[in-house]
Amino acid sequence: QEIKDITLRQFGTGVSNLNEVAQKVKEDLGFTLEMTALDSDAVTQRAATQPDSFDIADIEYWIAKKVWPTGNLQAMDTSKIANYDKIVGIFRNGKLTPDSTIAQGTAPHTVGFTSGPGGTDFVAEESGWMTLIPTIYNADTLGIRPDLIGRPIESWAELLNPEFKGKASLLDISSIGIMDAAMVCEAMGEIQYGDKGNMTTDEIDRTMAIMTEAKRAGQFRSFWKTFDESVNLMSSGEVVIQSMWSPAITAVKSRGIPCVYQPLKEGYRSWGGGIGLSSSLDGMALDAAYEYINWYLSGWVGGFLMRQGYYSAVPETSKTFMTANEWGYWFEGKQAVEPITNPFGDVLAQAGEVRDGGSFEERMGKVACWNSVMDENQYMVRKWNEFIAA
Amino acid sequence: MNPRPRSFYVLAAIFGLFLLFLYGPTITIAILSFQGPEGGLTFPMRGVSLHWFRDLFQEQAVGDIWGSFGRSFVLGLMVMVTTVVVSVMGGLAFRKRFKGSAVLFQLVIASLVIPSILVSLGVGLIFSQAGLPVHWASSGFGAQLTWTVPFGLLIMFAVFNRFNPAYEEAARDQGATAWQTIRHVVLPIIAPSLLGVALFGFTLSYDEFARTLLTAGSRNTLPLEIYGMTTNVTTPVIFALGTLTTVFSFVVIGAFLLTLGAASRRRAKAGSDAGRAV
Amino acid sequence: MRTGQDLELIHLTKRYGDTVAVDDVSYLFRGGSYVCLLGPSGCGKTSTLRMIAGHETASQGSIVLCGTEVTGLPPAKRGTAMMFQSYALFPHLTVRDNVAFSLKMKGVDQAVRHKRAGELLELVDMTRYADRLPSQLSGGQQQRVALARALVTNPQVLLLDEPLSALDPFLRVRMRTELKKLQRELGISFIHVTHGQDEALALADEIVLMNNARIEQAGPAREIFNAPRTEFVARFMGGHNVVALPQGRFALRADSVRLAQNGTEAVVRAVEYQGGHVALTARLAGDQEILALIPEGDFYADPKSPGDAVRLAWDEGRLHRLQA
Amino acid sequence: MRTGQDLELIHLTKRYGDTVAVDDVSYLFRGGSYVCLLGPSGCGKTSTLRMIAGHETASQGSIVLCGTEVTGLPPAKRGTAMMFQSYALFPHLTVRDNVAFSLKMKGVDQAVRHKRAGELLELVDMTRYADRLPSQLSGGQQQRVALARALVTNPQVLLLDEPLSALDPFLRVRMRTELKKLQRELGISFIHVTHGQDEALALADEIVLMNNARIEQAGPAREIFNAPRTEFVARFMGGHNVVALPQGRFALRADSVRLAQNGTEAVVRAVEYQGGHVALTARLAGDQEILALIPEGDFYADPKSPGDAVRLAWDEGRLHRLQA
Amino acid sequence: MRPQRTRRGHLASRHVTGWLLAAPLAVVLLAFLVLPIIMIVVVSFWTATEFSIVPAFSWENYEFLLGSDVTWRVLLNTAKYAVVTWAITVVLGFTVAYFLAFHVRSQTWQTALFLLCTIPFWTSNIIRMISWIPFLGREGLANSALLSWGVIDEPLDWLLFSDFSVILAFVHLYTLFMVVPIFNTMMRIDRTLIEAANDAGASGFQTLWNVVLPLTRPGIMIGTIFVITLVMGDFITVRFMSGSQSANVGRLIQNDIGLLQYPSASATSVLLLIVTLMVIGILLRLVDIRKEL
Ligand SMILES: Nc1ncnc2c1ncn2[C@@H]1O[C@H](COP(=O)(O)OP(=O)(O)OP(=O)(O)O)[C@@H](O)[C@H]1O
Ligand SMILES: Nc1ncnc2c1ncn2[C@@H]1O[C@H](COP(=O)(O)OP(=O)(O)OP(=O)(O)O)[C@@H](O)[C@H]1O
Ligand SMILES: [Mg+2]
Ligand SMILES: [Mg+2]
């Protein structure tokens, strides 16, 4: 059997399951990568219950907290990963720079390592066995339509500002949505959380009470669950302020609609994604999978994703696949010197514009919390259901 | 022929509005599919072009429309054939009023009314607990059958309620075996209804979402794929797909009606002097 | 006078759940005769015929055709053929293919079976229509095709369930002549179910009159009409009065009753013109109704209307004693 | 002899696309008479009746009832009522509610309409069944209910489309007596569509015989039977031979033909027993077929079989000259 | 073929061939309906961790489910959607079926108009659902049309992401399920009954109310069964069209599934199953489906 006969089946959400990546894999590595895009619920569900239906899972770190203990994924030997040392600190020891504080929530490094091959636990330090290889990550904040709002927005608290009644929206993925809600409540000064990533039942109750009241008052136009919904809500003018993902804002902008990724004084809510290997993967296919991971971290994909507004786990390697202008704009937060385009050729920014939120350090250095799975997760889910049904 | 009463025009207007309502989304889709390359899924229109129709035949950023279309199509055909076969056999069986048929009938009704997500969940659970791999052609196929087969069966009930058993007796009288009776008499006579069952089975399967959701396995059917595509920026390309589907359906149905018309005209011609003699 | 072609029913019974549709019927149908099974609705005619055809299993008893017990055989193995009430022509097959159907089932070559079908269509004078579909034929034409289809298997007995009921009266009379002619030419037995006594009288060599799942009376048509055994037979065959006299009940043919100067007093109730005759219903003292069939000429020489008083007379010799 | 109750059709025409179903028919139905519309299938009887009822619009011409032009009026405003062939009883309503239906439509109180329905059920002798559903009635009973329902509106004209065709022959004869009786009692017009000439003869004061969308002949029943105007009438009414002689075509009643020692030579073709008579069909030289209706006694004194040579005779005076 | 086959033999063969013919049907239903439902019932008594289900008997799921007022609120909401959708589809479906059955005269036209109604259903439901946003949204076709006609001054918000839009989508999706059985029953109404009513002086509306409607009841019942079950089991329409702002039972189940809470999802499913079967059970008492087809 030759490597070009191998087919690896990868699934994930449409965020990173891009066909261009598969094409490039075919070109560079010779084997076939089959991409299946699913919605986020289905991703979790498949990773947790159908280990035979995939070879590579492209999931988020907080989901790993649920999926890893099932044993459906296998630990990865860091020694086989060429660029391991160049992976940003966030995914290794939690610190962007040696003196950063670690944000609240399920920080990626806390679920990034396991005790060894076959392990279903998490260990705090770099054990040499990784659960997921980080791929992309970003910091999220509120997206706004400056043309329809017409004034500066500085705080998460604005989401519940009655001024935007019927024109606000929130993410309806409970684990993430509650974080945004917590950011809002904290910004309003209503609640002081011990750890937003791991709330007490009391904190959950109070958060949901505030949100429920706002919902009943008609604050929200809609909730969204998929990337595309958030884009449509924003670009159709249904909503002028909502919690949003950075590339979604980019997508709205690429249609020529003004939309701002609004840095806020309370900081960002952040997330990271990574790829894991199915435990049923072995032999040549496993070798191919390692080859794929190494390739993934070697820069091309990083550049490709960075151009859409994500960050690469190994920025250094990506740099070689980007122009100085691009690197300056996307990573260093500098003014563009020429028009900036996304990988599909759509112009996103003209010369002279700067990226919202600034440089990599400015963004990722101001993470207030990570998407997470709480100890009181089940309780939180039920409360969230109540909120939706209210 | 009597002149049409006033109520006809009122009802015709209501029917027209109903059609307009049914086609509302279809029309929106059609309009939006002709946007320029900057177009999104919402109004206002951004340019006018055939860009998205061209794009439909190229690879998308996310997902594999034609691959999943192929799977949906194959699955639709599998479901269609199975539905026709199973419901014809079932329809024949129920005419025999065998012991236990009442219970089986209750099950058929249950299958029809049980919420789709339960079937999806249940089949998914069974497969995962039994350690079987879920696949659109196994678990997905089965889950869809719980919906199409009862429908097909109901149609077969309607058909056999109107089927004159004298045809079968005549065939038996003429020395046809049980199988020959079915093959040469029953099936040809009910063939038009079978076409209906087939069409129905295919349509229901082709657009089935809930029952396939937890049972499709590693590869998506078209509805799942489209749903999955919404986890990234979806472009008017899915509207182009919708428009193309609609045009295709019009062509198919138009052809069907023309054949029907031609057949009846041919028949009318052949029998023009029927009833004159004797 | 048994022949090799006889059809015999021996203690034949048919039950549907609690209903007894045919109750212990025994009868010998002589080969080559035209027999009508006659009786009111629900008396078991169809059930009997279908048991003979093999489309219904007998609950008890047996059926013997040409000396062979056929009770358990499938329809096509019995030497019978059936013509269905609504003809049951296969709507998707042409006239020719309908007729050739049984041959096709036997695996006969197309050329051979088309030739044979052609012969039968010739017999029923339908050659011209061989390529039509049944829906393109009139009722009478359909009937002939059905006949041809039934005869293609060379049956010893042809079974017909109300073959004429779907036709209009004009056609009905014409087709019954043709049926009778055909039976005579072919020399096989026809068993014909009907509930029209005129049809039975016109066609049958022998009438089997059923009532309540049993045979009430059987015999040549004239015998049944002239010598009804029971009141039921007399009433059902029509044209009879049933007169209650001290000596018992008697049947009196309506055409033996006449208007006379000296006779029993009666009051006219209804007058029906029937072409050659007038049917006059009158009530005698004691609420007895009498039907008189009076030749048109006689009646209109001195016409009566409902309400008129008349005198009716008949010969004592025309009274036929009824057994029940 | 016009009365105030007359129904008149004036140049009435009905077209369905290219087919002309009723072609320029004019006729005066006298009030209080029983008229049968007779004719072969497709001749336009139903179309005529439905135009009178108002269920079909006339393509041309007009309909005048009791001096009022009703051509454009809705059915219920015409003073006609219709009894449908298959009765068209509302299956979800009881017998009483069926009869009371039109009163309910008028907004009549329940008590009043039930009383009136009761009277009509009394009239047709169906009081006992008032609470049944139609499906729980026999054919004859359903017919009476349909009759009661049609009569509840006190129509001047009752229209009946083949009212007896769904009944078995036994019941048919009984019901026709009742229809006639009822018409006489009510004194209103009945227009009764049928394609059975025996039915028409038995019931009608006047027969309107249609053919090919036109009236072929109309008049009292006896006149039609005894003096057919055309060959079509003679053949359709039955019991007639049409004889071609050098002087022209003549109708000859079958009961005027007798077997005789000295008569025209003929060969027996078919013999049909008909109860009191035997219908003997024989062929004369020159392929002319003659039907002879011979009294049973005479025939069986010297029975004939198909193929026998016989001699047939008739009185010249019985020949009736046909106009076409 | 034995010449003397006994009555019993014949009977037995009827049951045997019956079951042989029904075998594929029985297998499908057993494998993909009965077993899964049993599985759901069993799992509803298990417990779950974050990531897997634990086969240990427990009432916990039901305790929570039946103890929470969310359940009841959601159930009520589900019922509300079902009832409102039913009411609208029955009126609309009846009207459309009435038009097709009684006013469209040729069968070819009936077929053609019917097929015309089905064409939109060939486009994926998801695509159609997405397209409601540009149709009903603030800047959508409906609002811009109304604005340009001067009917309204401001875009209507309640056209989208509201109970209105949910019901609208349901009506859009399921009216045809009402039309077909009603049409089927209507076509079997003897046309002379209408004439008889006419003859009795009934106006068009009186005929409709006193004759057509009662006789169409079985069709309405069958349509009702379809619509009620489809709405009760739906989860995707409610989510899309309410902008995730309202919930029905289906969504609760789907949420639980998304979070891998299978036992809890199963318990909710069992509840939904019981409610659905009860409603349908009642409806089935009012109509004999097999006879009415
Ligand atoms: N399949 C059946 N199941 C139950 N009862 C039946 C069945 N077929 C006939 N019967 C009953 O058996 C009796 C005789 O029926 P059959 O059809 O033989 O009567 P028939 O003489 O042919 O009547 P008709 O003149 O109305 O055709 C009737 O009471 C009928 O209701
Ligand atoms: N609705 C219609 N559309 C087209 N042609 C019709 C229609 N109704 C009747 N016809 C035609 O009009 C002619 C007369 O029909 P009508 O029903 O009046 O005949 P009929 O004398 O009642 O016949 P039958 O004895 O068979 O009932 C026939 O040729 C028939 O085919
Ligand atoms: Mg019968
Ligand atoms: Mg007619």
Short description:
Chains C, D: Residues 7-237 form the ABC transporter domain. The complex is a heteropentamer, with one copy of chain A (390 residues), one copy of chain B (278 residues), two copies of chain C (324 residues) and one copy of chain E (293 residues). Chain C has helices at 45-53, 95-105, 110-123, 139-151, 169-186, 197-203, 221-226, 231-237, 296-301, and strands spanning 7-16, 19-29, 34-38, 60-65, 68-69, 80-83, 157-161, 189-194, 206-211, 214-220, 240-245, 248-253, 258-273, 277-284, 289-295, 309-313, 320-321.
Class by SSE composition of chain B: mainly alpha
Rg of chain B (CA only): 24 Å
Order of helices and strands of chain E: HEEHHHHHHHHHHHHH
List how many beta strands of chain B DSSP finds. 0
CATH homologous superfamily caption of chain E: MetI-like
User: Which CATH architecture of the domain at 65-232 in chain B?
Assistant: Orthogonal Bundle
Domain ABC transmembrane type-1 (chain B): 69-256
Pfam family, one (chain B): BPD_transp_1
Organism (chain B): Rubellimicrobium rubrum
Protein name (chain B): ABC transporter permease
Fold and architecture overview:
The complex is a heteropentamer, with one copy of chain A (390 residues), one copy of chain B (278 residues), two copies of chain C (324 residues) and one copy of chain E (293 residues). Chain A is α/β, with parallel strands linked by helices and 390 residues long. Chain A contains 14 helices and 17 strands. In chain A, the strands form three sheets. In chain A, strands 1, 2, 3, 4, 6, 8, 9, 10, 11, 12, 13, 14 and 17 form a 13-stranded mixed β-sheet that branches. A two-stranded antiparallel sheet of chain A has the order 5-7. In chain A, strands 15-16 form a two-stranded antiparallel sheet. In chain A, helix 1 (19-29) links the parallel strand 1 and strand 2. In chain A, helix 5 (174-188) crosses helix 6 (201-216), helix 6 (201-216) runs parallel beside helix 14 (377-389) and helix 7 packs across helix 8 (246-253). The N and C termini of chain A lie far apart (58 Å). The two termini of chain B are 29 Å apart. In chain C, the strands form four sheets. In chain C, strands 6-7-8-3-9-10 form a six-stranded mixed β-sheet, with helices on both faces. A four-stranded antiparallel β-sheet of chain C has the order 2-1-4-5, with helices on one face. Chain C has a four-stranded antiparallel β-sheet with strand order 15-14-13-16. Chain C contains nine helices and 17 strands. With 293 residues, chain E is an all-alpha fold. In chain E, 75% of the residues lie in helices and 1% in strands. Chain E has helices at 7-43, 60-67, 69-103, 107-118, 125-130, 132-136, 141-149, 163-187, 191-199, 204-233, 236-241, 249-258, 262-285, 289-292, and strands at residues 47-48, 53-54. In chain E, strands 1-2 form a two-stranded antiparallel ribbon. In chain E, a hairpin with a 4-residue loop joins strand 1 and strand 2. Mean pLDDT of chain E is 84; it is low at 1-11. Chains in contact: A-B, A-E, B-C, B-D, B-E, C-D, C-E, D-E. The structure holds adenosine-5'-triphosphate (2 copies) and magnesium ion (2 copies). Residues 16, 19, 21, 39, 41-47, 195 of chain C line the site of one adenosine-5'-triphosphate.
